[in-house]
Write a structure and sequence with these properties.
Blueprint: E1 9-15, H1 19-30, E2 39-46, H2 52-57, E3 64-70, H3 75-85, E4 90-94, E5 98-100, H4 104-112, E6 119-123, H5 134-153, E7 168-171, H6 172-178, H7 190-200, E8 205-215, H8 221-242, H9 260-270, H10 277-289, H11 294-320, H12 323-330, E9 336-339, E10 341-342, E11 354-355, H13 357-369, E12 373-374, H14 377-386, E13 394-400, H15 406-409, H16 411-416, E14 422-425, H17 450-458, E15 462-465, H18 478-496, E16 502-504, H19 512-521, E17 524-526, E18 545-546, H20 553-561, H21 566-583
Parallel strand pairs: 1-2, 1-4, 2-3, 6-8, 9-13, 9-18, 10-11, 12-13, 13-14, 14-15, 16-17
Antiparallel strand pairs: 4-7, 5-8, 6-7
The structure holds zinc ion.
């Protein structure tokens, strides 16, 4: 056993009552293809009672093998003990259930040589020696998904890859500077907590596919449901609170995402007075026994994944204090209503673009009576980014094109009901008329002027940009696109002397490049695609629902709850072939559309 000079790299392994698995891992570490004095192994027995420490102390080792014992305190605490004791400049975090390739340590060491302090993530495939369990199959599935995602652009991505999982080496100065594992997260998500912290602090992450350690998954399927999923849910909530940037990707955020049936299922499981873990484990048992049959194996893995997610969400709800508290913190869904002209319908005019003052007031009263509270777009952004509380039933009311009649027939009504609204301004046409598309045919319909805009902004109405001249942005060359987007923000910011957060795409028309450009200039960008928005929605393609003259009762209810009216959508779908037969196209002359 070499002593004297410090090793260059220290392997740190935390273990709890897995003596046989650990001894197998150590054998692969003893047969590394580099000089034993270059590395050391530090094993921390975390409350092991299976004779691990005694067995290791008797174990002949070619390299320095140091054994620390610690009352059980969790993997984070044990790893920190090991890191503190480590003498190497590079820390290689391994687990006690790995089969390490003979060049594993050399690969990690080479990656750090002559490089800035960094975090190096090695390859972590599932070992074919893993027992045939649904747990192992689930890990295999996740590893395949990861490889496929990495293969797409060979980039590590936030937050999925911001993790210090086993087979990760870190330069010690990074841990000294930004801290090691968070001991308040003893197991499950501890790897993501430290990974996100180092990532957000700017530590460089690198994937090293040539540093291979095979993971022998010995975990029992029922432990994945009844222990890991419970801890995952609880700790993922804590991590999302610690790093708000992670909120949209967190497990709790899923309660507002996915199909209606998925959301309902999560709600049922999440609000259960008892843990569904036992029930799910019972359902998994026969599938695990029959997993040689492809269908049962795939079904079992799906059930294990959904079951884990349901148990995790229930655990997060308990940590938050209740399902409703969790929903308020992560699961709000935001309807965004889109209006255009409010006032007496000009004649002639584009059908469906005008709502009469009486109609509008009735629609606003309907919302107020059902407990909706309007928010500003910056409130939504603050909730997403920091969890800043929002009202129980938030709604965003938007008004495109900034028609002058809003000042007479809409904005006063909003204020009377204690509401606010977001008016999208076409900055080169303020105080004039709409000079774009078919609206150019109606020069008598005026738009708000700069003074009116300033006055209503003082009254608490929010203003956003709707480009400079309302061109279809997807048809513009890059230079003009930038001018239309950023230029409109600048004009409005100069006018109001406040930061402008929101943008609405003219005609709702946008593609990847337009969204990228708008996303550079604005926090939130709105389309005209129907639907609801949640914490995971693309902030540069937010959904809105057009409110039409006569919308009331069921229509308002469904648009405020789902972001569209399923009955109207069904009727439109049924009508389309008939219209096509008559007009040769699916567009009838009077069909209302966003401008
Ligand atoms: Zn418009």
């Amino acid at each position: 056993m070499p002593t004297g000079t410090n090793p260059k790299i220290s392997v740190v392994i935390a273990t709890h009552n897995r003596r046989e698995s650990l001894l197998r891992t150590l054998q692969t570490l003893f047969s590394q293809d580099l000089a034993p004095e270059i590395y050391e192994i530090v094993v921390v027995a975390d409350g092991s009672t299976d004779g691990t420490a005694e067995a290791l102390r008797k174990l002949p080792s070619p390299c320095a093998l140091r054994v620390l014992e610690h009352p059980q305190g969790g993997i984070s605490l044990a790893r920190n003990e090991g890191i503190r004791a480590a003498r190497g400049e590079i820390i290689l975090i391994l687990d006690d259930d790995l089969l390490c390739a003979p060049d594993l340590i050399r690969q990690h060491l080479a990656a750090h040589e002559n490089a800035e302090p960094q975090v190096v993530i090695g390859a972590f495939p599932i070992s074919p020696h893993s027992p045939r369990t649904l747990a192992a199959e689930c890990y295999r599935q996740n590893a395949r998904d990861w490889e496929a995602r990495y293969a797409r652009d060979s980039q590590l991505h936030w937050p999925h890859d911001a993790a210090v999982e086993p087979n990760t080496s870190i330069h010690k100065t990074i841990l000294e500077k930004f801290g090691a594992f968070d001991e308040s997260i003893p197991y499950q998500r501890e790897d993501s907590e430290i990974g996100m912290r180092l990532w957000l602090k700017g530590a460089p992450f690198r994937y090293l596919p040539t540093a291979v350690a095979h993971h022998v998954v010995t975990k029992r399927t029922r432990d994945m449901i009844s222990r890991d999923a419970v801890l995952y849910g609880k700790h993922d909530l804590l991590v999302a609170r610690k790093f708000p940037e992670y909120r949209p990707f967190s497990a709790p955020a899923r309660i507002a995402q996915g199909s209606w049936s998925m959301r309902i299922t999560r709600r049922i499981f999440g609000a259960l007075p008892f843990s569904p873990a036992g029930l799910i484990s019972a359902l998994l048992w026969p599938l695990e026994k029959l997993q040689r049959v492809n269908l049962f194996r795939r079904g079992g893995v799906k059930l294990l994944q959904y079951g884990s997610s349901a148990v995790a969400i229930r655990s997060a709800a308990r940590e938050a204090g209740s399902w409703d508290k969790l929903r308020r913190e992560f699961g709000l869904r935001l309807p965004v209503f889109m209006f255009h002209h409010i006032g007496d319908t000009p004649r002639p005019w584009v059908p469906g673009l005008s709502i009469s003052p009486v109609d509008f007031e009735r629609q606003i009263r309907w919302l107020a009576r059902r407990g909706f509270k309007t928010i500003r777009s910056s409130d939504w952004l603050a909730w997403i980014r920091t969890g800043e509380p929002l009202p129980e039933k938030p709604i965003l009311l938007t008004f495109d094109d900034a028609y002058a009649d809003l000042a007479r027939f809409a904005l006063p009504v909003l204020l009377r009901y204690g509401f606010t609204g977001l008016v999208f301004v076409v900055t080169s046409h303020t105080g004039q008329s709409a000079q774009w598309g078919e609206l150019a045919k109606y020069p008598f319909v005026k738009l708000m002027g700069p003074e009116e805009i300033r006055r209503w902004a003082r009254e608490g109405i929010e203003f956003g940009a709707h480009s400079r001249s309302h061109h279809d942005l997807t048809r513009l060359p890059l230079g003009e696109l930038k001018e239309e987007v950023t230029g409109s923000r600048k004009v409005l910011e100069d006018l109001l002397q406040i930061p402008i957060v929101a943008f609405a795409y003219p005609y709702g028309s946008c593609h990847v490049q337009v969204r990228a450009e708008a996303g550079r200039a604005f926090g939130l960008c709105f389309t005209v695609d129907e639907g609801m928005n949640n914490i995971g929605s693309n902030l540069h393609a937010l959904r809105r629902t057009m409110i039409l003259p006569g919308d009331r009762g069921w229509t308002l209810w469904s648009k405020s709850r789902w972001g569209f009216d399923p009955v109207a959508r069904l009727l439109a779908r049924l009508r389309r072939p008939i219209i096509k037969a008559f007009f040769g196209s699916t567009e009838t002359p009077e069909a209302p559309h966003a401008t």
